[in-house]
Structure formats: C-alpha cells, structure tokens
Predict the 3D structure of the following.
Amino acid sequence: MSIIIKPIISEKANYLTDLRGAYSFLVNTKANKIQIKKAVEVAYGVKVADVRTMIYAPKVSSKHTKKGLQVGKTNKLKKAVVSLAEGEVIDIFATN
C-alpha cells in the first residue's frame, strides 16, 4: 500500500509552507497518522512534528439524458498536512 500519493501544490498549500512550515499531501484513504508520519520521514529524510488529516466525501452529480437519469460520483479523498520540526525543509520541486 502506497501511503503518499502526491504532494498538493496550490496557493493555500504554498502559503502554509511559507508561514508555518507545513506541507500538504494527498494520501491513501486507509492510512492513519502514524503511517503517514513514517512515510514522509522515510521519503524525504526529515523529522515530522505533527500530522493533521482531512477526509473529503465523494461528490455525487447527476444529469438528465435521452436514456434517463445518469448518476456518477468522484472518489473519496484524504489530505494530510504535515508540520516539520524546527529547521527542517522539504524541496518538493527537486528532481532526483
């Protein structure tokens, strides 16, 4: 099971990084905070101080067509905001 799916690059995420040193990641919906903390520490070689998670419910949409009512939904998402210890930095844009 891959814990970290991808980092979130947005205006709000960059603001949190600059202001508080907190990085946002899209993570597996079944991962808990301890697994997320270990995965970030192993992947980026940093010391994690705090992990906060958010679960977003799937969005349901429907439309009327010639064949009747078509209903669809998006996938459930889980985001993690990881705060690092003092002096720690993650370079998300680094190419390995």
Q: What stands out?
A: Residues 33-44 form the longest helix (12 residues).
